Amino acid sequence: MRELTADLLGPLPARLAEEVALLLAAEGVEVTLALVPTGTLVRVAPADLERALGIIAEEYPDGLDTAARRHGDAPPAPAPPDRDVPARWFGRGSWLVIALAAACWGVFIAEETAGGSQSRDTLLRFGASRPAHVRTGEWWRLVTALFLHIGPRHLLANVATLLVLGPALTAALGAGRFALVYVVAGAAGNALSYLLTPPDVVSAGASGAILGVLGALGGQRLRFAASARYRGWQVLAALLAYLAIAVGAEPGVDTMAHLGGLAAGLGLGLVVPPLAREPTAHDRRLSLACGVAALALVVAAYAALLAAR
After folding, report:
1. DSSP labels, 74-136
2. For residue 57, which of 28, 85, 250, 293 sits 20 to 30 Å off, Cα-Cα?
3. So which residues are the catalytic ones?
């Protein structure tokens, strides 16, 4: 493999090398990092070199040397010469994305065991959203519905999309802020659906929360470009692809929940600051507060569901 840095600059500071590797990986370029005593090398296959140079030129218009000076305070990581390590495909906090996917699968299995995920009565017992119920004070359905799915195709489409988009946002925000965006955007989508859909419609699914993740990626790209691992066109392409999958997967798609989650995620992405590469005490406190708030909302919703049974 040819060393990309050999034609651009000497070994890069560790943080900049990881940033470049994540950028190239998001564009589909196979990347490895080589740790050397004086820094970190970013390596790509010779066939990908020209494309990689174009991506870097677009992302760093002032050149890698200018970016390197911004990261120059990071000491090089000690390592044996020319030791290749795989570039990190999952960012900070990606364990939460996997946990959310596992939770959706677990709830789905419980639905199937209790009477079927496509049974109206089962869905309502497990916390699906229905405007007539929400109007009687069952607010918690706006949250519990995020973990329910109607049929296996619905579940597979949502979990697959979450596993694709989630790591990009956790790389920018970390687990705590990601959790807040996911839960709040999903609940906001269900709230819009509650306001605008007929009172007897039963709806469920993580679609609003997942579109909130996509919206937050777009907001991060607009406001905090350096933290976004997706370009603007990639966010738009992902949105169109997701809508095509969601609309084609099952009849009766809750469009209002989709739009509400997307809009809420975009707004949160514009105002929630990205997690610093070297978090300060304030950064950690903010992340912890966001994570605790999201967890408290989910726990309160399920406590209300159990109390109502």
Report:
1. SPPPP--TTEEEEPPSS-TTHHHHHHHHHHHHHHHHHHHHHT-TT-HHHHHHTT-B-HHHHTT
2. 85
3. 207, 258
